[in-house]
Amino acid sequence: MDQGTGVFVTDGGIETDLIFRRGVDLPHFAAFVLLDTAEGRSALRDYYAGYAAIASASGRPLLLESPTWRANPDWGRLLGYDARDLERVNSAAIEFMADLRRDHVDAVGVIRISGSIGPRHDGYAASSEPHPDTAFDYHRPQVAAFADGAADLATAYTITHVGEAIGIVRAARAERVPIAVSFTVDADGRLLSGIGLAEAITAVDEAAPPDYFLVNCAHPSHIAIAIGPEPAEWNRRIAGIRANASTAGHAELDAAIERDDGTPGEFATAQADLLDRLPDLSILGGCCGTDERHVDAMVREIARRAGES
């Protein structure tokens, strides 16, 4: 992401916000199904509009992430979507984001569209390591749908295995789409597969380097453990943080029946602390339990520390 345009604002935890705060039914945590109804598209427009307003008010660029984290074959099958349905809905998602960009570009200015990719299996569980070749074949159709549309890039979120990350990057390169990989870490700062974040980023960079990395779906305090106390070449590859509001680990979050949205002020402080430690960050947003209150508080805290009016 071009840091010359400033730190991009992006959204919060779309699934937890829609389910727990807005009362929207998302079977299997899949937001992409909303694209298939007028009511669902209206709910998505309302959701993204809040973040466009934050970007506009703060004078920051906006990264719009498509609601396609679950739009892959395994999760699609559970929801009755075959390969043709998934191609259609992934394409429709990028068209929807392009429409949102047209709606808000005059107020915001710079808006980038990212096609969101999720892991094949549960992002909260360390299942068997996917082989890069298998991950390449599995994820390429979704990446191809993004490439055929108006997506500026694709981002793979909540990744727990190096092999899957490598396969996704190779698929994006084959489709000539810029690609970012976002690993998730647990409360101990390690990936659920057991390795450290430094080891994961280094391994992916050696095999198939993405354009940049992010970390998502972990509280800022867990991410702070993962990046370590000192700057290093590997953690300068991290360009984005999308953190959880809750300090709970993945097992607790997976079992939760209510949303833990923490305190927006505490979230903002913790996120701004990460920006101080990772000065190359150019994307900041939220993940589980966060909404526009958290992102707005974060943007205001970053501006305060920078001495902006």
From TrEMBL:
The keyword Membrane does not apply. PROSITE patterns: HCY (PS50970). Residues 1-302 form the Hcy-binding domain. Zn(2+) binds at residues 217, 287-288. SUPFAM superfamilies: Homocysteine S-methyltransferase. Its cofactor is Zn(2+). Keywords: Metal-binding, Methyltransferase, Transferase, Zinc. The keyword Methyltransferase applies. One of its GO terms (biological process) is methylation. GO terms for molecular function: metal ion binding; methyltransferase activity. This is Homocysteine S-methyltransferase. It comes from Mycolicibacterium arabiense.
